[in-house]
Each structure stands twice: as C-alpha cells, then as structure tokens.
Amino acid sequence: MGPWWIGRALFFLLMVPGILAWGKEGHYAICKIAEGYLTEDALAAVKRLLPDSAEGDLAAVCSWPDEIRFHLRWSGPLHYVDTPDFKCNYKYCSECLVFCNSTMLVLMKSNSLRLLCGLRFEKLLMMVRSREIGDCHDTAGRKDRCVTGAIYNYTMQLTTSYHDSVLESKCEYLCIMGDTFICQFMISGYILLHPFMMTDNLTEALMFLSHFIGDVHQPLHVGFLGDEGGNTITVRWYHRKTNLHHVWDTMIIDSALKTFYNSDLATMILAIQRNITDDWSNDVLSWETCSSNHTVCPDPYASESISLACKFAYKNATPGSTLSDDYFLSRLPVVEKRLAQSGVRLAATLNRVFASGAKIAVG
Fold it and tell me: Could you tell me what reaction this enzyme catalyses (predicted)?
C-alpha cells in the first residue's frame, strides 16, 4: 500500500497543528465533502487504494502531500502556479494551446503511434521550437511543473491504470513546449498531459490528486510571482504577525471555527454541505462539469483562483497592514465557497476516473 514513510507521515500529520496549503482543516473539509458525492464505483476504488492507516477515510490523508514535500522535494512546485504580477489571469501554456487547437494539429489513428511520436517529431519541433511556455513551470523554468500540471498528471496515472482501454489509448495529439514534446493521451474524452515522472504507486497518485485539486482552489496558490502568492506580504491578522498567504491557507478558517463553529470542524463542514444543497444547489452541476466531456479541467479552476486573488485576497492587504473583522467577514464566504467547489469537483473527477467498467488492480 505504499512506502513505509506514508504511515509515518500520516502519524506526523496528526501531531502537527498547522501545515501548509489550505491547512489540515481545509484539506480535510474538501475531501470529506467529496466523499459525500462519490459514486459507488468511485468510493469502492478509493477505499481500495487508501493506505491502511486511513481506515477507509479519504479525508484522513488529504494533507499528506504537504508533509512529504520535504521528503520528496521535487513535489514542492506542484502545489501552486505563479502568474504574472498584476495581470490577474492564468494561462497554462498559451502558445502551446494555440498550436494544439490550430489546423496544424495532427490527428493520428492508434496504429500511427510510432509514426507520430517518432518520425514526425523533428519536423513538428522545428515549427514551434521558439514558442513560449506560459505560467506552468517551476522556478528553474522546467515546464509543466505546477499544480495544474500535477492534476493532469495524476489524473492520467489513475485513469490509465484503471481502464482496460488504456492499452488502446492513442498518442493522438502532439504538443510541443519549447524543446520538450508531450504526447497527450485521449482518455475518456480528455487530452491528458504527461510531462513528468510516472509512479506505479496509485495510492500516492490518489492522495496527490485529492490534495492538488484542493490547492488549485486556494486563490493565492495561483497568486503573483513577485510576492510568491502572498508569502512575502507581511501583514497582521488581528494582533498576530503573519503573511497574506498564511491568512488564506489557515487563519481565515481557524478564525471561522472559533467564531462561528465552536471550534468544531465537523460543524463547519456540515454548514458548507447545507450551503451546497441549498444556496448553491443551482451551481453544483456547473461545478461538476468539464467542457467537452473532459475527465479533469484544472485550468478554469486556476483562472477562478487568480481572479478571486485579485478581487479579494490582495485587495486592502498591503504590506504592514492589519487585517481584522472587515477583511475576515468579507473573505470568509469566498473561502467557504472554494472549499465547497473543491470537494464537489474532486468527487466529480474521481467519479469520471473510476467510472463503471474501470479495472481495479492494485499491486
């Protein structure tokens, strides 16, 4: 069920009161909400993949990637995507997407896999070698290493491992980012990127995916490059010195728990679930849906996040400012809705990945 350090990391999570990203409470809430929207097939697959220490509870492991990022340092850049300062927009790889959707797109049949990924590669590479890479890259400029890239990657790993049809998946589309080409597999109607390392550990893939779908909904995980998503903006949260990113990761939720929910996370989750079924019921279908029957669609989520970051997170949060009731009470509804959207969308993604007919084979 995974390497020995998964269990130790999970034990450590129980001992540490505050961690990175949404924080333990936020990620727990997201995955607990998602559990309520899983189909029978998806729930069975998830339970089969979870480590024994989770005792069948996806929410128990949703913060795991925050702890192992110090053990697996390559995973650090996969928690966020930086965007250009003050532009308030996100583009995975604008030039690449233009190319992939242009008349230059090459559609091949399954028996042409070798031709597409081999003989035609150099010719296509010459066409687009100079194209820019967009926002999804790490600080060293390595392309596709960001939270949206990670979501594509781990969705693809789970899907290709669970569907018999993967053996017939076709390398139908070729997209070239700078000097690197990416064969994109058409799976369940979605073109999934595989820009970096595959792992045979589907337990890890599930935990990474569940966590990263949460991360991409935190507005400052799609924040500005210049301030590292608010990490370098020092503020006071009431009387406590902190940074803006931490306010959105943890402190808004912590304050909400103490102020409105008697410090009980379960009560907060129930309140969000009631909002989903009542106030937001007309929005749920649109939250669940990916365009063109895609399996996963993190790019719109990232675009939503940077828009919210500009409208709510950065606004009135200048370096040295004190954030108190006005900021807290006007931003809490944004945070709670993002937690709700994360949970609904995580469930929808897992439902598509583990749709009826999927083959469950865990080594």
Answer: Endonucleolytic cleavage to 5'-phosphomononucleotide and 5'-phosphooligonucleotide end-products
How many CB atoms are closer than 10 A to CB 127? Answer: 11
Question: 224 and 153: one domain?
Answer: no
- Least reliable range by pLDDT among 115-119, 162-166, 261-265, 334-338: 115-119
177 and 251 in a single domain? The answer is no
pLDDT value at 319 more than 50: yes
Strands 234-237 and 240-243, bridge-based pairing: antiparallel
Residue 92: predicted pLDDT: 75
Paired tokens of 44 = 């069975």
Q: Are strands 322-323 and 234-237 parallel, antiparallel or unpaired?
A: parallel
Shortest CA distance to 60 belongs to which of 69, 68, 51?
A: 51
Helices 252-260 and 265-277: crossing angle in degrees, nearest 10, is 90
CA distance 240 to 248: 14
311 and 293 belong to one structural domain: yes
The Cα–Cα gap between 183 and 156 comes to 12
Q: How many CB atoms lie within 10 A of CB 283?
A: 14
Give the integer Cα–Cα distance in Å for 132 and 116: 22
pLDDT of residue 216: 98
Amino acid at position 88, single letter: C
